[in-house]
């Protein structure tokens, strides 16, 4: 399935994909947007703002999966890969970034998201100290899959893996790690795609704001691969793995 770098003109379609993909997911849906059923269109505000922040970050790359229907291209999936670290590879990614400028997107009619629980708006940032150690030391230099979703109408049709492979291939070429925090039920999917093993979970730890949120397994792909338990687990699950690409 084809994937390509996202364009600013793709933003409305990308927002539509992510709104549908994560509407019932435990973190972005249930926890952050408890009033989404009452105000379903307001959820789009969250994704507009999130994507625009990624577009303005030099280390982030936005990718879309596409198909052709009726002779026209249709976006079926979205991924955001972040190049973390302060090594030469990370600096190169920053230098290659193209600033699309502040006027690339039209102003939103409103930023008042009635579907949102304001106390959960920064839950990921608030929880980070509880799992930051998972990315310490050599793992700090990595390609991190911070977001990956496929529209429900196109799930289990092969659109997710190419979005994952985009970053894994770059990590392999640079000789650095790749990582992801998986949404509930998607750990096996990432193992099938090429991640080596589960190294922890972002919801654990006393006082962690993410406590009780389903999912959160952190998976790593190691530079050059890693033999042992992780590889065995990946081979064992490769046939039975299911689920859409979500994090």
TrEMBL record:
Please provide, alphabetically and separated by semicolons, the GO molecular function terms listed in this UniProt record. acyltransferase activity, transferring groups other than amino-acyl groups
- SUPFAM superfamilies under this entry? Acyl-CoA N-acyltransferases (Nat)
* Pfam families for this protein: Acetyltransf_1 (PF00583)
Q: Where is the N-acetyltransferase domain?
A: 65-225
Task: State the organism named in the record.
Answer: Clathrospora elynae
Under the heading PROSITE patterns, the entry gives: GNAT
Q: So which domain of life are we looking at?
A: Eukaryota
Mind telling me what this protein is named?
N-acetyltransferase domain-containing protein
């Amino acid at each position: 399935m084809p994937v390509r770098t996202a364009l600013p003109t793709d933003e409305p379609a990308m927002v539509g994909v992510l709104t549908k993909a994560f509407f019932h997911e435990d973190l972005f849906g249930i926890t952050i947007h408890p009033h989404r059923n009452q105000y379903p269109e307001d959820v789009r505000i969250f994704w507009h703002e999130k994507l625009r922040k990624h577009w303005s970050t030099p280390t982030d790359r936005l990718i879309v999966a596409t198909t052709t229907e009726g002779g026209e291209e249709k976006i079926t999936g979205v991924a955001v890969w972040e190049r973390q670290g302060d090594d030469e590879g990370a600096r190169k990614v920053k230098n290659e970034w193209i600033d699309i400028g502040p006027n690339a997107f039209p102003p939103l009619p409103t930023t008042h998201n009635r579907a949102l629980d304001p106390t959960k708006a920064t839950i990921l940032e608030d929880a980070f100290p509880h799992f930051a150690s998972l990315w310490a030391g050599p793992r700090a230099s990595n390609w991190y899959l911070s977001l990956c979703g496929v529209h429900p109408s196109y799930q289990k049709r092969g659109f997710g893996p190419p979005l994952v492979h985009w970053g894994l291939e770059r990590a392999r070429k640079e000789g650095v790690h790749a990582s992801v925090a998986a949404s509930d039920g998607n750990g096996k999917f990432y193992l099938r795609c090429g991640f080596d093993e589960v190294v922890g979970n972002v919801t654990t730890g006393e006082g962690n704001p993410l406590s009780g949120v389903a999912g959160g397994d952190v998976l790593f792909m190691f530079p050059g691969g890693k033999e042992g338990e992780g590889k065995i687990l990946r081979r064992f699950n490769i046939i039975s793995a299911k689920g859409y690409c979500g994090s």
